[in-house]
Amino acid sequence: MEESIRCESHRLRRLDSLISAVSIGVFLVLIGTIFVLTSNLYSAVSRFFNDFRLVEIAPNFFLPAPVLNHPVLYLAVEVFCYLWGLFQIVVLVLRFGIGSPIYLKAKTLSKIVFWLGTGWLVSMLQTRIFGAGSRGWFAFWSAVAMLLGLSLIVQAVVLATALQRKPQ
């Protein structure tokens, strides 16, 4: 019986490793595809980094921020975030299918919240809902920090719920 449990545990680790390897491949293919399909993305990235200036956000406290809006780059990042978030949904389904440990399921759910939320935030940055210039840039990063906190809270709630339901 103990041997059977060890074999099952080994099988689960191999399947989880396979999911991780496939995820790395999908990540790289997704980035490459976005660069190939988005015209002028290379020059948009270059313009973006050349556009940074130091902005005083408090007395004698400066941070870098882009001066202009970069719609081509922001759209590419938004598309990446949405597609990567959707792929994480596939990963979560696979994790349920193979019976991955709850901490991996919770981590994947946290990634879904983060990446889909970040796609939405990037769309708001692109359309200047956060404001123009450096104001929008810093508001965007503040929202990303809040979203990161939310995704960690989602992960913690799933894990706490699983611990509550676990028979003693």
Task: Please explain how this structure is put together.
The chain is mainly alpha-helical and 168 residues long. The chain has one domain. 79% of the residues lie in helices and 8% in strands. The protein is built from five helices and two strands. It has a two-stranded antiparallel ribbon with strand order 1-2. The two termini are 22 Å apart.
Summarize the structure.
The chain has 168 residues and is mainly α. The protein has five helices and two strands, in the order H-H-E-E-H-H-H. Strand 1 (52-58) and strand 2 form a beta hairpin.
Order of helices and strands: HHEEHHH
Q: Report mean pLDDT, rounded to a whole number.
A: 92
Total E-strand runs: 2
What oligomeric state do these chains adopt?
single chain
Number of contiguous helices: 5
Radius of gyration: 20 Å
Shape: elongated
Largest pleated sheet: 2 strands, antiparallel
Roughly what percent helix? over 70%
Strand order, sheet with most strands: 1-2
